[in-house]
Amino acid sequence: MNPMQAVKVEKVTLNIGTGKSQDQLEKGLKLLQIITQKTPIKTITQKRIAGWGLRPGLPIGCKITLRKKVAEEVLKRMVEAKDFVLGENNFDQNGSISFGISEYIDIPGLKYAPEIGTLGLQVCITLQRPGYRIKNRKTQKKKVAQKHKINKDDAIKFMKENYKVTMEAEE
User: Fold this and answer.
1) Where are the domains of the chain?
2) Which class for 27: exposed (0-12), middle (13-18), buried (19 or more C-beta within 10 A)?
């Protein structure tokens, strides 16, 4: 196989949306700290949505982005929490993967913490190939060629080979 066609994990993002509840936000920050041993950041609203009582500048969630070895280690635990089963709808056409974990106690190595309660999180995985730097570099930015982009089939194949994921049967 051509080494430039090899797919790898660029980043893993863990996200907890809490809404306006500052109490839930503190619990979410604590949970992400426990899972990753790193400091998460708060996500801030950009728009005003009167029906939901949101205004710009209000913290409504927290997230943390992991890269390199740490991302791969955390990803193994997250996939194990889903029992190595993902659905076809967890993959998008650009090769990104996203799934939710309904309760953090499903993650191996984590025990129930009464101060956090029951809380779920969203896991988003971004895949890339060598050469993707051309779209982000400072000078001479270029588009990634269509045949070099990662599609849904490439992402499914990558997860099956590297993380022993099985696909959920469609109903």
Assistant:
1) 3-164
2) buried
